[in-house]
Amino acid sequence: MKIPLALALVLAWIVCGFTVEPCHAQQHRAVRLGNPSTRFAPPLKTSQDLRNLFSNEKLRPDIESILKQVNWQGNVDDLYKAAATAEIREHKIPVGTRMPFMSARKNGQPVALVDVLWAGDKPADAYAFDFRSKGRRYQCITPKACSNFYLEDLGPERLTIALTKTLPPEVNMCEPFEMSVTVRNTSSQALTNVRVTDNLPDGWQTTTGKKTLDLAAGDLKPGEGMQFKVQLTASSPGHYENRARVSTAEGANAEALAATRVQAPALEMVCTAPPQAQVRRPFNVCLSLKNTGTVAERKATLLLSIPRGVTVVNTTAGGAVSENNVSWEVQDLAPGTIREVCASLMATEPGQLRFASKAQGLCALATETACETKLVGVAGILLEVVDLEDPVQVGDNVTYEIRVVNQGSAPLANIKLSCEVPEQQEFVSGEGATQVSASGRSIAMSTLPLLEPRNTVSWRVVVKAIAPGDVRFKTDLRSDEFAVPIQEFEATQQY
Q: In the chain, where are the structural domains located?
């Protein structure tokens, strides 16, 4: 309602003990506060006094009368609710502040003074709180000295929407994990076409294979919300941050950030084998598997390839033998844990053997390694000396056949043969695998560089019986593999 200028000037003099001077039409200039006869309510000492003022059932009709006089368009219940629950803060009314209106009393009746200028000699102490009503924002300011409240219109309410996003602090790369996204309308009016979008980090996807999220929350009433729960997987470990965004048809929007650490098992394997082993004797090849990751590997499969010519004698527990490999399964390999498996093997041929191996987890990436063993044979030699004629008449020749057999599994190197002719005989001739030469009663065969396993070489030496007797034809054999010469004596009866 409109107040006549004359009445407004009179009221300006009396409300709150103001000393007022008319600056221009409809305006009041206040220079002092605190007149008991014109104050709206008793002075305020604490913020609770302010809450009590607005919750006082006896004062509420006067409060509503003030608001009606200034044609306030808000909902008074919003004011009461904010006065009871909102944060109340200390406030200073600066000198020179123009207040749109101020509550007061005249003859005990509530009166609203319009357009009041605070012209005191210092800022006035007051309490203040904020609230919203019918789409607009307000600040309620009440001087402590006189409880003469007034409302400042702060403009249209800014439409807001809240978005929260949660991820577990740590997740396992081997298992799906849940992400929760919650959107809530924090405005005082409905929001429409509410949508949440999320571009997932590289390597992430939903359990249905999607790499981006487009979640429709529809229309949300004030205070209404909606929660989405999404099952995700990650393909590699590491620290990840993920941001989601919400938008509305009315322009309200928000973002939310969540972070997690993706943990994973990691396999490291070592293959060990003896540097050298003998053929036809068992030797062990072992695989040592370690989880160097941060979570357990539920199951890992170890595979040891078996080279050609090698047979499996036995394995540690759980080993499964096939034609070309041995496999094991290791269950629940915790971080930092080491498991070892071994196979006992045997080979029949010398040579260099390479044992390739591989470990693959249900979750952990595969790892490969290898180790080698040199298979060496065992030297074995047979020396045979046989006289082809026995007994022998003096004057006749006798032939000695000399055979060298490599019975072992390793080559024989630098074979040297020598013979000693008894006094009752004399050298006639010699031939064989290498050249034969004689000097007096000593016979020497040239060196044979190499004799492979299971191979045989031979020589024949012809001598003449020159005297009767039971004679012995001596043969010595030397090779790199034997430190002591091998000797053979062949007996011949001469008459």
A: 5-156, 161-263, 267-376, 381-494
